[in-house]
Amino acid sequence: MSRKKIIWLIIFLAAAGGTWYGYREYNRTQQDYKNVNPDHTLSAAALIQEYEKNDSVASKKYNGKSVEINGSIRSIEKDEKGFYTVVVGEAAGLSSVRCSMDTSHAADAAVLAAGTSVNIRGACAGFNKDEMGIGSDVIMNYCVIITKKE
Hints:
The protein is of the alpha/beta class. The chain has helices at about 5-25, 45-55, 55-60, 105-110; strands at about 40-45, 65-80, 85-90, 95-100, 115-130, 135-150.
């Protein structure tokens, strides 16, 4: 084969590979955490305590992982676009776990009430550290309701 043909073959293969990768990324969907086994299962209070004790160690342990928490619902927030956030934590504490609900499971969040116990599973996304004395928040995304108790 001539040198020109080899170069054109390499260019063609690189373009085809880039196109295939771009197509896959464009059509990628988020996994449904309802059907995922959690990497960690613990109470909301224990998760908050680990982050407040040493946020860098807790970040390495939990961030990007599937986490299932249990605790009491402090509030349910709905923004102007209709997205739900369930705030879980002890009523007396300032800190909480903020669970942004998966949009395909929004109907499950709509029927929740403050003060009930709940198990929620989602992807742990990080920690908003308390800088002003108003409470810290652990952030979870793509959350789904696993069980709820009155």
